[in-house]
Every structure is written in C-alpha cells, then in structure tokens.
TrEMBL record:
Molecular function GO terms recorded: DNA binding; DNA topoisomerase type I (single strand cut, ATP-independent) activity
Superkingdom classification of source: Eukaryota
SMART domains, per database record: TOPEUc
An individual GO BP term: DNA replication
GO cellular component: chromosome; nucleolus
PROSITE patterns tied to this protein: TOPO_IB_2 (PS52038)
Domain DNA topoisomerase I eukaryotic-type: 1-129
Protein name per its UniProtKB record: DNA topoisomerase 1 beta
Pfam families, sorted: Topoisom_I, Topoisom_I_N
UniProt keywords, alphabetically: DNA-binding, Isomerase
Source taxonomy: Eukaryota, Viridiplantae, Streptophyta, Embryophyta, Tracheophyta
InterPro entries (UniProt xref): DNA_brk_join_enz, DNA_topo_DNA_db_N_dom2, TopoI_cat_a-hlx-sub_euk, TopoI_cat_euk, TopoI_DNA-bd_euk, TopoI_DNA-bd_euk_N_sf, TopoI_euk, Topoisomerase_IB
Length: 129
C-alpha cells in the first residue's frame, strides 16, 4: 500500500556551503532553511529526513563530473600516489597477520587483502546511471 509523502519545505533542509559563500535565498517567502553548515569534509550539498522513513536521510551531491568534485578527486588521487612509497610495508604487515590467533585481526586482514588485490573501495557508489 502506498503512503502520502509530506512535502519537503525549506525548514526541513540542511544546506552545506563554504564559509564565504552567500546563503542561498529561500524560495518560499517567510520560510528559512533548517540549518546552514560549513563542513568541507563531506560531499553533500543538502540533506533532509525522508518523510516516508524518518530514520533515513535524502542527500543532494555534486555531479561526478563537476569541477569541484574533480578537484576533490585530484586530491584523493594525489594521496593515493603518495601511498606508493608505503604500500609494500602495508602489504607485508597485513600478510604477516594472516597467521594471527586473533579472529578479529584475521578478518580485518582478509578484508584488507581483498580490498587491495581486487581494488575495492569502501563507500557510496560513484557515478550512476
């Protein structure tokens, strides 16, 4: 059975913008944004609680091809490039722990090994159709 979805209002939406960026004007007169954040450690631009399932959130992200996203990707690539100087030591450390008596440590090692060998990444899907 379907549910009626409550309309999302500006007072439901948290916006994430740069500290020096002007706050976007609220499109509905007399309304205000729920919150304005300046968190440059996240990639979302806005979020709100899902009106159907209040324990979940809906997010607005930059498009994968945006120049800001590209800048972030370049920074991540640069960190990965620097990792090349340490990767052999990391691999030696996790390989040694395959024989650990600690089950949790072995599980972490297997996950690390699979992530490394299969080039898996943790996190949200990139791109999309």
């Amino acid at each position: 059975m379907g549910k009626l979805k409550k309309r999302i209002r500006p007072s439901d939406i948290t916006i994430n913008i740069g500290k020096d960026a002007p706050i976007p004007e609220c499109p509905i007169p007399g309304q205000r944004w729920k919150e304005i954040r300046h968190d440059n450690t996240v990639t979302w631009l806005a979020f709100w609680n899902d009106p159907i399932n209040p324990k979940e959130f809906k997010y607005v992200f930059l498009e994968a091809r945006s120049s800001l996203k590209g800048q972030s990707d370049r920074e991540i690539y640069e960190k990965a490039r620097l990792l090349k100087d340490y990767i052999q030591g990391i691999r030696a450390a996790y390989t040694k722990d395959f024989a650990s008596n600690d089950v949790t440590k072995r599980q972490i090692v297997v996950a690390t090994y699979l992530s490394d060998k299969l080039a898996l990444r943790a996190g949200n899907e990139k791109g999309g159709s």
